[in-house]
Design goal:
It is built from seven helices and no strands. The chain is mainly alpha-helical. Helix 1 packs antiparallel against helix 2. It is globular and about 45 Å long.
């Protein structure tokens, strides 16, 4: 078993035990050893989002963005992650966080989601639109 397999198994075990800070450390090690594997970036972002708090959410958003970058924009879960992080950050900061890069990123993610839904599941597009509106992202 390779070292990265052991780190991945340990991270998954920690997640199943709801030991998220320990799982985050394991995913950090995985990203350091294999920085081009989008699955590790995505899993790390998910763990940080679960931990919550402004700093963790901001970092999670960056890792969701790196997943999008590594997959060429084809990871729906990462696109949703950017939208969810943006909404949670806006709630925590009461809208004081008005960074143009953040606004551009979540707009691009929402647009990519809409485009993907139009292409793959047009009947579900109204559900996506409603979800993004409820997050105050449209």
């Amino acid at each position: 078993m390779a070292d990265h397999d052991a780190w991945r198994e340990l991270a998954e075990s920690y997640v199943s035990l709801q030991m998220y800070k320990q799982a985050a450390f394991c995913y950090e090690e995985l990203i350091l050893s294999q920085p081009t594997v989008p699955l590790y970036h995505l899993a790390y972002a998910d763990v940080l989002y679960t931990i919550g708090g402004l700093e963790s959410l901001q970092t999670a958003k960056k890792y969701y963005a790196s997943t999008i970058d590594l997959t060429g924009g084809r990871n729906t879960r990462a696109l949703y992650g950017v939208c969810l992080c943006t909404s949670a950050i806006n709630q925590l900061t009461k809208g004081r966080n008005k960074d143009d890069k953040d606004n551009e990123l979540h707009s691009l993610a929402a647009t990519a989601l809409e485009k993907d839904y139009k292409r793959r599941a047009p009947a579900k597009l109204p559900l996506l639109t409603a979800a993004l509106k409820s997050l105050k992202l449209l």
